[in-house]
Amino acid sequence: xxxxxxxxxxxxxxxxxxxxxxTRRAQSTSAIVTGVAVNPAAVHLTWSDGSxxxxxxxxxxxxxxxxxHPVSHQRELPLRHVSGTAPARVDINGNHIQxxxxxxNEASGKEHVSTFAAExxxxxxxxxxxxxxxxxxxxxxKSRADKVSPWLPEEMAGGNVPNVAWESLAASNAVAxxxxxxxxxxxxxxxxxxxxxVPPTVEATEALAMQLGMVQPTMYGYIWDTAPRNLxxxxxxxxTNVELxxxxxxxxxxxxxxxxxxxxxxxxxxxxxVPHGGSTKLADGFMAAEVLRRDFPAxxxxxxxxxxxxxxxxxxxxxxxxxxxxxxxxVTAEVIGFRYNDTDRAPLCSLGFDDVxxxxxxxxxxxxxxxxxxxxxxxxxxxxxxxxxxRVLHGRYAFQGxxxxxxxxxxxxxxxxxxxxxxxxxxxxxxxxxxxxx
Length: 438
Known about the structure:
CATH topology of the largest domain: Double-stranded beta-helix
Number of helices: 11
CATH superfamily of the largest domain: Clavaminate synthase-like
Structural class: alpha+beta
Strand order of the largest sheet: 9-10-20-13-22-11
């Protein structure tokens, strides 16, 4: 009955935006300052769209573009030299704002001029005023991946997942190629990317991983495969043909891998009796968060608050990590991570007595919600799928015959870093910024 209720709610609310806990900030491609005012505490800027924003004097001096290293962006002005006193003057010069700091407050003993691009200030507003209303600074964070799009299973049904071709990706320039950027944008938005036509080799698997990020070695190796093993050699159910429930990988690692990569090199043919045999299961953990937030708020709150223990025991290894299912952004309280694998759950001795009782009730709601969000994806030889392991759950339907995937993990930091670099390069390519006035 619970599953039917979840599916009924999903159907009824399919057209209702689920990002109730998210506030997006509109980005302007032509941020123009139309007014400047200086008071004892802050500089007030008025923008061409009628909005206003305030910047503390100390913040402006601390973030002076001329006081950071041009390549590393490391600060070159010690915090002890940052004064909170008002600037001597603030001028608008084209698309730039020039803030002059009195010589008496500068360690050099000379007047210092900070030149800010208006668009940079617009993008880094931390106080947004529209008329008499002020948006809380806890609702807007520019550095977050603001184009994440939680998805329902019908959106990915029939293999309708984001795709790129291996041929174009392999031929791309990793620094500025649009295909690489497109691939990483897919990973950011939906947490899934399928690459078509990848050679069934370890070399091609590694090349693809390095094109998009950096391989993260684990106890499973640098590059591994899921070829069937003798029973005595099986240390993980991934090496069997049984059904695997939805999960994220390596929940027992503090540095949980960021991307799971599977290169399909062998797949048994479909069979009428098992239409999804060998297919991959997928579900969006971010969509699960929104469904629970809306329809089962007590369950959502429980898995945000309570840390679940996970473990992996093998030979001389005993890996343990404890963390909440939902990771929240420290400023916005928006869900930015999902970690769950019931197979690898450790004994619940780290929970209090009441929390243990609540766990079993809330876990049933969580797993029922995930089941309702589940969608099958059949990989054919030459298909490689990349999954955001901090968001999208995967699993496998039981199968008969021989199936093998070559896989590896990518670090979370490196694929996100490459995305930021390519996004910056794309902006520069589309619109070269004006040189700051001398």
